[in-house]
Specification:
membrane, ABC_SmlMolc_Importer, ATP-binding, Rossmann fold, 8 helices, 20 strands, nucleotide-binding, globular, five-stranded antiparallel beta sheet, 2 domains, OB fold (Dihydrolipoamide Acetyltransferase, E2P), EC 7.6.2.11, alpha+beta, six-stranded mixed beta sheet, 364 residues
């Protein structure tokens, strides 16, 4: 399959006074897997619909391989779409469902049969060709919807929450399948989800959206370890966010003071510039928060709850300072781990390299 690059320049969509998508610019490389991530109403589906040609922008341009397709009809953009509800024809066999886009393009019968068989092999379902959609599981139906999309070899594939209707185990399996197909085909994929784990697992880059605009764009590692706003730190994975003040700045990072504590600690600056005296949020991920019995850490608190969620155990701790939020510490579940007691006083510590300073605001 061929793949194309995509460029969005100043794309805007309004519905009356409501701005569904603020002026947005975005470059997607050939063969890239980019995920549009964000809560409901963040603008991700609006952006996808504009790229697909299912809605028309009020301003801006969409370029596929430098060709302006802003006002081209959806069928003339060489873009395929996979929807959450599969959109399979119930009266057609699986084989006929997959062949349908080729029939619309008047592909010769021999080529149509060969490409349909290839698409079924790609999604590893050649044995269901003669069945009807109602005879398939949800995961199988989603794979057939993907096969119907790739059969006509679009240069860009758009996926709008394609795994939203599946249970967690099936979703995990389908994530691996979609990643495998992406590697094999090398096509450009733009994927919409509100599931942060899905985005982290599957993407080359994540475009995190909030209130109709891009909050941060980067690799999963960038967004997870180097969030540029409180929204990013809070949305992508669990995080502990503490109020602090910058004491001084040097080339290696920042000296900071937590709340009104006199003892300074260190944080990494995350590439942003900070000034002495500036209020910030300090982010420490749960797996980097160390819980000890001794009272020699940076904070002390009482254990409120313990939750075991399979492979991870989470401790919920209320700091002794009443103006601090509840904190979460996480570690791999071990049967040999010493038991914690609710109400137990514990000490909390972390490495300065795992403490990220974030400007105390939303970023917009």
């Amino acid at each position: 399959m061929t793949s194309s690059s995509l460029r969005v320049k100043g794309l805007t969509k309004r519905y009356g006074d409501f701005v569904a998508l603020a002026p947005t610019s975005l470059d997607v490389a050939k063969g890239e897997f980019l995920t549009l991530l964000g809560p409901s109403g963040s603008g991700k589906t609006t952006l996808l619909s504009l790229i697909a040609g299912l809605a028309h922008p009020d301003e801006g341009h969409i370029l596929v391989d430098d060709a302006d397709v802003t006002h081209s009809p959806a069928y003339d953009r060489d873009i395929g779409v996979v929807f959450q509800n599969y959109a399979l024809f119930p009266h057609m066999t699986v084989e006929d469902n997959i062949a349908f886009p080729l029939k619309m393009r008047k592909v010769a019968d021999a080529d149509l049969r060969r490409r349909t068989a290839e698409a079924l092999e790609t999604v590893r379902l050649p044995h269901v060709a003669k069945r009807y959609p109602r005879e398939l599981s949800g995961g199988q139906q989603q794979r057939i919807a993907l096969a119907r999309c790739i059969v006509y070899r679009p240069a860009i594939i758009l996926m709008d929450e394609p795994l939203g209707a599946l249970d967690k185990k099936l979703r995990d399996q389908m994530q691996l399948e979609i990643k495998r197909i992406h590697r094999e085909l090398g096509t450009t994929i733009i994927y919409v989800t509100h599931d942060q784990e899905e985005a982290m697992t599957m993407s080359d880059r994540i475009c995190l959206m909030n209130a109709g605009a891009i909050e941060q764009l980067g690799t999963p590692e960038d967004l997870y370890f180097r969030p540029q706003s409180v929204f990013v730190a809070d949305f992508l994975g669990e995080s502990n966010l503490l109020s602090a003040t910058v004491r001084q700045v040097d080339a290696q990072g920042l000296d900071i003071v937590l709340a009104d504590q006199a003892a300074p600690s260190r944080a990494v600056g995350n590439g942003a510039s900070f000034a002495a005296g500036e209020p910030i949020k300090l982010m420490v991920r749960p797996q980097n928060l160390h819980v000890e019995d001794a009272a020699n850490g940076k904070l002390t608190g009482r254990l409120v709850d313990v939750m075991i969620s399979g492979s991870m155990t989470r401790l919920y701790i209320a700091p002794e300072r009443v103006d601090m939020p509840q904190l979460v510490a996480a570690y791999p579940t071990r049967s040999s781990a010493a038991p914690y007691e609710i109400g137990q006083l514990v000490s909390l510590d972390w490495n300065s390299a795992d403490a990220v300073a974030i400007r105390d605001g939303r970023g917009h």
